[in-house]
Amino acid sequence: MFQFKLVLLGDSSVGKSSIVYRFVKNSFDEFRESTIGAAFLSQTIKVKESDDGEETVIKFEIWDTAGQERYKSLAPMYYRNANAALVVYDVTQQDSLVKAQSWVNELKNKVGDDDLVICLVGNKVDLCDEDAEDNKRAVGTEEARSYANEQNLLFYEVSAKTGLNVQQIFQSIGEKLFETKSEEIAAAKNRQIGSSNDHVNVQLQRASTNDPTSCCF
Amino acid sequence: MDSPEEQYIDSRPSRDQVSLRPSLSATSSMFVTNATSEPTTSITLDQTLFRASTPPLEAISDRNDNDNSNDDDDNDDNDNDDDALLESLSQSINSYENSVSRFSHRVVSTDIPTVFIDEAPGGNDELSSWNKNFFILTSAGKPIYSMHGRDQQVTSLAGIINTIMSYFQLRNSEDIRTISSGNAKFSFLNRSPIILVAYSRKGETSNELINQLDFLHSYLISSLSQRQLSRFFNKRENFDLRNFLEATDFENLDEICSLICERLYPDVLLGALQCLTLKKTYRTQIHNAMLQCLLKESDLPRGTILYGLIVAPNNKLCSVLRPRGHTLHTTDLHLLFCLIYHQFQNLQNQQEMWVPICFPKFNSNGFLYCYIKFMTNAPQQVSGPKPVLVLISAQKDAFFPLKSLGTNLIRSLQSSELIDKLYRAKSIKITDVPAPLVHHFIYKSRKHVQYVMPELQFATQPDTESTSEQTLGYEKKIMTYYQQIHKSLVRDDGGSFSRSTLSFVQWTATDSLSTVTDQSLFQEENISMMGLAWITPSFELYLICNNGTNDKNVVLKSAKKIVSWCRKHEERLFVNEGAIF
């Protein structure tokens, strides 16, 4: 089993907690209270190994952070050791995309790890009906997608309310992380064959925050 | 029981106390004040500031006698002698009609009448239609929060409040505390850059209102910290704090206001915590488990964990893990409990929270970090309020060590079935305590800074539809009684008349049967309510008797029984030392 750390970032009330609940509990609560501080949850998914069709279990340890400005100074502690980041915006709020972009910049500047998988997620597409008069969409799909491509991010438009695409985000992040890790393992195995030592400990997990010797920062 | 030299006589003559209050205005005089004729009276009717709710009431007298008969009672006081008590009880009922011939009822009822009018706004949305309101504004006069009222109304009021406060600061170079007018009272608390104002027609003392304001202010600090608050206002004096507060802050303020004003929440009034009633052995086992789990985490750097708490539903403290010589302030715990049960009640069981909170009385400039997790006996258990584990650290990156400690502790409590015990713990009932004619009581142990009260019981089984409304109304009524009873013991500034005081408060009404509708087979009950307040250096007791009770000796006897019962079961009712590391 692989274990990955994932963090959700984004402006307040874009639906970060709702996405997590859809993923973890497959449920939705219209009147969710704002997150205070941060919530820690975990959920597992299965990914197929391409060559032999066997399934591997991936466990996500998820930090669902509060979007409120006052908790911003705590964010580094949550994303510091993350393997993946979901940067969420609200497709009906143009400002929230701006905020998401600033999170992406912060991640790229501060984490400095090319293996960090960032996924840009536009939530609340259930409020958008392209044909209806009261279409609430304020951020065009193409606008966001081209930004995501430019920055080399994964991109999804989802609805936590209907569940549309929510599972897919985590699935594709899982697969991407698994792919990277498999390559690392393969490389480690090759090294292992080359060396006389039979046992090499492969560090699958990134150092956790409780490790005082953590060298990431 | 108590040493015989303890005195239960007010240290002041009644006239002095009366002069502290505004005099009863002619318009609101539905009462006959016969209290002045009694030399030992410590409060008079105009202090209750209430009109009777039932129209036929012609006179309500509020007598408050300090008990001089304490010595007589001591002679025949035998807590286990129920026969003597029953005899005296029956005597009191028999002699009832003789003593107060105008009253026609002979029964003692467990239904508590409403004697305090609740002036709900009658269709208009004037600010004055609310009998209680809180305002929070900045020192520059910008509104931050109000319990009731629209923005427009509050803004103009904020200007007036600001002017009044500045006037007193300039002229007297000190802050104004209270303005009283008739039965209305404004109390002010200046915590620059924040000003808080309470308005009340509910008869609270200035001190009580100011305590409530301090609690609201403490909430703001817990959310922002004093340092951050000062930083905003140092930069710009006319900073608009509303833009920085979040929806959750306003929700929490609403919740706190409604707790203080609408519910049976004596925590702020008494400055004490309620505790989960739990067998001594279980509590000891929980505390031992806490210490053992802490010992097992040998790689936990010293100082990582400051405090550990187990909190049961309804803001009840269950267990404490703390360093030797350190305790958390009651107000800080009240704030934490409010937050837990308002904000986190919908959390998933497996979810863990990491929440920065400033504990204003611990350190108003810094944040502590709380690991919060609900405790369940089975992972999939869902509905209903759950006990919660809180582990507190001063280090913001201590989540994972605390998570590991918390997980081990919960596992240990699960395997020893102690979590089960928490779920099954029952509040005490009034029937558990051998105290005849007592409807409800609050006993505060000063040593523990904790109080205990029996759970509320309904005379009739409320149907589910109206349950919450009925419960709320009942809680509010009981709380108002306690406020009045408590007030009989303290001066307006909160000081008590003497170290030990015993005081009876009585609400009676005459001729209330005259206008009962003819068709009704049921007689409306007469109102004859008695309450007792008793404070000594070691405890405070407040009790409300059943309607119709009027023998002070019996009530005092019951009070003594409650006190000795609470002392006997002290270790079950209160958290003593907790687990100390």
UniProtKB/TrEMBL annotation, chain A:
Its main location: membrane. PROSITE patterns: RAB (PS51419), RAS (PS51421), RHO (PS51420). The keyword Lipoprotein applies. GO terms for molecular function: GTP binding; GTPase activity. It comes from the Eukaryota. Pfam families: Ras. InterPro entries: P-loop_NTPase (IPR027417), Small_GTP-bd (IPR005225), Small_GTPase (IPR001806). Keywords: Cell membrane, GTP-binding, Lipoprotein, Membrane, Nucleotide-binding, Prenylation, Protein transport, Transport. CDD domains: Rab5_related. It is a lipid-anchor. One of its GO terms (biological process) is late endosome to vacuole transport via multivesicular body sorting pathway. It is found in: Cell membrane. Belongs to the small GTPase superfamily. Rab family. This is GTP-binding protein YPT52. It comes from Torulaspora delbrueckii (Yeast).
From TrEMBL, chain B:
It is found in: Endosome, Multivesicular body membrane; Prevacuolar compartment membrane; Vacuole membrane. Pfam families: Fuz_longin_1, Fuz_longin_2, Fuz_longin_3. Residues 68-84 have a biased composition (Acidic residues). GO terms for cellular component: cytosol; fungal-type vacuole membrane; Mon1-Ccz1 complex; multivesicular body membrane. The keyword Cytoplasm does not apply. Residues 1-84 are annotated as: Disordered. Residues 305-406 form the FUZ/MON1/HPS1 second Longin domain. Residues 132-255 form the FUZ/MON1/HPS1 first Longin domain. Keywords: Autophagy, Endosome, Membrane, Protein transport, Transport, Vacuole. Residues 438-570 form the FUZ/MON1/HPS1 third Longin domain. Residues 16-51 have a biased composition (Polar residues). One of its GO terms (biological process) is protein targeting to vacuolar membrane. InterPro entries: FUZ/MON1/HPS1_longin_1 (IPR043972), FUZ/MON1/HPS1_longin_2 (IPR043971), FUZ/MON1/HPS1_longin_3 (IPR043970), Mon1 (IPR004353). It is a peripheral membrane protein. One of its GO terms (molecular function) is phosphatidylserine binding. The keyword Transport applies. It comes from the Eukaryota. Required for multiple vacuole delivery pathways including the cytoplasm to vacuole transport (Cvt), autophagy, pexophagy and endocytosis. Belongs to the MON1/SAND family. This is Vacuolar fusion protein MON1. The lineage of its organism: Eukaryota, Fungi, Dikarya, Ascomycota, Saccharomycotina. The gene is TDEL0G03420.
